Amino acid sequence: MTADLIGRLREVVGPAGVLSDPADLAGYLSDWRNAYTGTAAAVVRPGSTEEVAGVVARCCEAGVVVVPQGGNTGLCGGAVPDSSGRQVVLSLTRMRRIRDLDAANQTVTVEAGAVLRSVQEAAAAAGLLFPLSLGAEGSCTIGGNLATNAGGTGVLRYGTMRDLTLGLEVVLPDGRIWNGLRGLRKDNTGYDLKQVFIGAEGTLGVITAAVLKLFPAVRSRATAWAALPDPQAAVDLIGVLRELAGDRLTGLELMSRRSVEFVLRHSAGARDPFGDPHPWYALVELSDTLPVAGLDAVIESALGEAFERGVVLDAVVASSSAQAAALWGLREGISVAQNHEGPSLKHDVSVPISRIPAFVERTDRALEAAVPGIRIVTYGHIGDGNLHYNLSKPVGGDDDEFRARAGALARVIYDSTCAFDGSISAEHGLGQSKREIVADYKDSHELDLMRGLKQLFDPRGLMNPGKVLPGL
C-alpha cells in the first residue's frame, strides 16, 4: 500500500517531488536541536497549493498521516514525524513565492514556504516593514511562524503573528482548499476562521499562503543598554519609557547577569558595555518612521528620568548601527552560548508583566532548593511578559544526572507559572514536548473545546497527530 501511495503522490508532484531514499530523508526527520527524531515513509515537496491539496487528498484516502513541515526550526518537535515509518512529511519549502505586494493596502501575500527574511526584504524594497523578527529569520518559514504564532522581539509594538495576519489559504485534512486570502482589516461576516489555524501547529490543516500586514518603514532607531538592580526595575522602566516615548518603544529585553556572562565567555568579540557587573540588564530600542526623529534625545531623557527614580543604575546609548548590533548580539547570543556550559533545559513561559518580579523570585528560590548550585539563565521579552527560563547544571555536575531531572525541574517552573496566572508556552508552541503536560495547566473545558475543533476539522486524526492535544 505504501508503494502504491508513493506512486500516486509522484503523479501529483512529479518524481523529483517525492523523496523516499533514506539518505534523502535525513534532513527532514529531526528538529534542529536533534531533540526529536522520527522516521517517515516519504517526504513530499509540493510546488503549489493545488499540489498540496492533491497530496493531502490521496493521503486521506489511504488513511496515511501527514506531518506539515516548514523550515524545521521549532523547539518543541511539532514538525517531526513519529517512529512508525508510516507517516508522510509534507515539506512546503518549495512554495516560496511572494504572490502580491499591495503598497496602498499595506499588505503582502506570500506562500507558506517563504523564508521570513525574504518577506522582510520584499517589504523593505517597497519602502515598507514586515516587523516579525527572531533569531531563526534566515531559515524559518512563514508557514511555521503561523503554525506556532511566532512573536519575536517586536511584539511589544506590533504583536504576534495573530496580529500580523489578515487572511489565510489552507488545505483542509480532506484535501479541500479554503481560500481566505482577504486583505481586509474589517470583516464581520461570522467566525474568524484564520485564527483557528494560527497556532494549531498543523493539526487542523496545512497553511499554504497568507496575507500579512505591512507597516511604514523604520527610518530611525535608538538603542540602549541599561543596568538594573532587579526585575522590578525592568517593570518600572517599561512605565517610564511608555510615558516618555509612547509607541516608539519597539523592544525591551531583560537579561540576568549570568545569561550575559555566558555570552561574554563563549561568543567571539562580545564585550561588556560596562566596566563593572550588574545583577540585571535591559536592552531598549525605540524606532520611528521619520528619518530625523530625535530618538537619541528621547531615549537619553527617558533613561535619565529612570536614573533619577532609582530604576536604572547605569546606561549606554549606541552611537552607531555597529554598536547597536553589538548590543543586540549580547541578547541574541544567549541561547547558543549557554549550550557551551553543558545540557540546557529550555522553558518558554509568560506571566502578566506586573507579576514578573514576584514570579522570578519565587521560581528561583524553588529551583535552587531543588538543585543547589543550579545556574538559572533568565532572559526574554519582558515588554510582553515572555521569559525564557533556561537551566544549566551546577559547576562540575554530571550531564546525564542533570538531564534526568528535566521533567521535575520543568514542573517547578510550570507550577510557579500557573500560580501567577501565566502560560507554559509563550511563543514556541506545544508540539510533542508539552502536549501531555499541558493537561495539568490548561482548563479542562478549554481542552474539550480544542478536541472538539480537532474532531470537526480532522475526524480521522490524520493531520499531525501526537502534537498539541494531550491523548491524541
Explain how this protein is built.
With 472 residues, this protein is α+β, with helices and mostly antiparallel strands. The chain has 17 helices and 19 strands. It has helices at residues 2-13, 22-25, 49-62, 116-125, 142-147, 155-158, 161-164, 194-197, 231-245, 257-266, 295-308, 321-332, 334-339, 356-370, 399-404, 406-419, 444-457; strands at 18-19, 42-44, 66-69, 88-91, 98-102, 107-111, 128-129, 165-171, 177-180, 206-213, 215-216, 220-228, 249-256, 280-288, 314-317, 344-345, 348-350, 375-381, 386-392. The strands form 4 sheets. Strands 12, 13, 14, 15, 16, 17, 18 and 19 form an 8-stranded antiparallel sheet that branches. Strands 5-6-10-8-9 form a 5-stranded antiparallel sheet. Strands 1-2-4-3 form a 4-stranded mixed sheet. Helix 1 (2-13) runs antiparallel to helix 3 (49-62) and helix 14 runs antiparallel to helix 16. The chain is globular. The protein starts with a helix and ends in a 15-residue tail after the last helix. The model has no long low-confidence stretch (mean pLDDT 95).
Give a short account of the largest sheet.
8 strands, antiparallel
The average pLDDT score comes to 95
Number of strands: 19
Structural class: alpha+beta
The portion of residues forming beta strands comes to 15-25%
Large-scale geometry:
globular
Q: Give start-end ranges of low-pLDDT stretches.
A: none
Percentage of residues in helical conformation? 25-40%
What is the end-to-end distance? 25 Å
Estimated radius of gyration: 23 Å
